[in-house]
Amino acid sequence: MTQQLHSGSGWRIGWNPTADRYCALVGADDWAIELTQLEFEEFCRLLEQLSGAIEAIQTELMPEEGLSCEVESDRILLSAEGIPTAYNLHLTVLEGRRAEGSWSAFAVPNLLSIVRLLKAENL
User: Fold this and answer.
1) Which pLDDT band, with edges at 50, 70 and 90, does 57 fall under?
2) Chain Cα centroid distance, residue 54
3) Would the pLDDT of 52 be above 90?
4) What is the CATH number of the domain that holds 34?
5) Where are the strands (E) in 3-116, listed by range?
6) Is the pLDDT of residue 94 over 80?
7) Which residues touch 12 (CB under 8 Å, ≥6 apart)?
8) Range of the domain at 9
9) What is the model's pLDDT at position 76?
10) CB 109, CB 87: distance < 8 Å
11) Quick check: 91 and 78 in contact, CB under 8 A?
12) Burial of 103 (0-12, 13-18, 19+ CB in 10 A)
């Protein structure tokens, strides 16, 4: 896979397999952080896990009922808040340099689509 940078309104995600230490980038319009390959793999796995949990919870909630859900590894914490069809996503990097960032509910579906695409391409 070659170097890639995908972006849209409120999100961006990049991948550079030839980078020494930080091969991935995640961010929004006003922030970004580079991630190691392990951090990025955890981010992708946890985002998919969070999305699946929210999808499963959706059938248990009333249409106007909100949710708060989080998933965590040793490296990454992802939390979601909103309603199942529109939730904000918050990232916390838990080791090393530590960092935080958030995506709006508007950006999350596109971010999830790109993560799935990158996974399909065997990042």
Assistant:
1) confident
2) 14
3) yes
4) 2.30.31.10
5) 4-8, 11-15, 22-27, 32-36, 67-72, 76-83, 86-93, 99-103
6) yes
7) 5, 6, 25, 26, 27, 28, 32
8) 4-120
9) 97
10) no
11) yes
12) buried
Q: Look-up: residue for tokens 């409120």?
A: 10
Collapse the DSSP code of 85 into the 3-class scheme (helix H, G, I; strand E, B; otherwise coil) and give the result: coil
Judge whether 83 and 67 are in contact, CB under 8 Å. Answer: yes
SS (H, E, C) 45-68: HHHHHHHHHHHHHHCCCCCCCCEE
In angstroms, the Cα distances linking 102 to 8, 20, 108 are: 15, 26, 10
| Residue 60 Cα distances to 10, 69, 82, 119, 121, angstroms | 29, 14, 15, 29, 34
Task: Enumerate long-range contacts of 97-103, CB under 8 Å, 24 or more apart.
Answer: 99/33, 101/26, 101/27, 101/28, 101/31, 101/32, 101/33, 102/28, 103/10, 103/11, 103/28
Q: Hey, what are 35's tokens? A: 């991630």
Q: Enter the pTM of the model.
A: 0.91
- Phi then psi for residue 11, to 5 deg, are -155, 155
Q: Give me the number of domains the chain comprises.
A: 1
